[in-house]
Each structure stands twice: as C-alpha cells, then as structure tokens.
Design a protein that fits this description.
single chain; alpha+beta
Length: 90
C-alpha cells in the first residue's frame, strides 16, 4: 500500500480557490469546494490560534477563512509571501 503526505501548507496552497489580504494584514482564503473545507479547517488549526470561518456568504464563493497574516509567517512561508505581496500591492 502506498501512502502520501499532505502538509498543511500544501493543503492551503492547493485546495483553496482564491486568496487575498487587506492592508491591515487580514488574510482571506476561499474555497468553492465544500468537500475540501474540513481539510482546510485542519490545516489552519495546525498553524493558527484563531481564525474565522464564514460559510454564510453567497453560494458561488463557498467558504471564506479570515486570519492574521502574521500567524503563518514562520510555518507557511510560501503562502505568507504570496499574501504579503497581495497586501503590499503593485
């Protein structure tokens, strides 16, 4: 039997369908795939003390996760850098 290893960073980078970050450092990840939401919950729980899940947004957006960008800086550097670039803008 073969096994695969999924890291929390891989889950957050590949199972979310959108991401953004505002100028105050609040990051948002989206998924339109409800089936992925539990894996995303687990990945965020392994990195972050506090995040907000909003599943009451319009159906086409699916589920939104909000958290402080600074909480993933050391543990998820690739995603942190992508969101930091969005936060800083062009």
């Amino acid at each position: 039997m073969a096994y695969i290893t999924l890291t929390p960073e891989w889950i957050l980078m590949n199972l979310t369908t959108g991401r953004t970050c505002n100028s105050n450092g609040i990051a948002t990840l989206y998924t339109i795939h409800i089936d992925y939401s539990r894996l995303i919950d687990i990945a965020l729980e392994s990195y972050i003390d506090s995040f907000v899940v909003n599943d009451e947004i319009p159906e086409y957006l699916g589920i939104r996760y909000d958290f402080r960008l600074s909480e993933i800086k050391d543990r998820c550097p690739i995603l942190w850098q992508e969101l930091e670039d969005i936060r800083l803008g062009p």
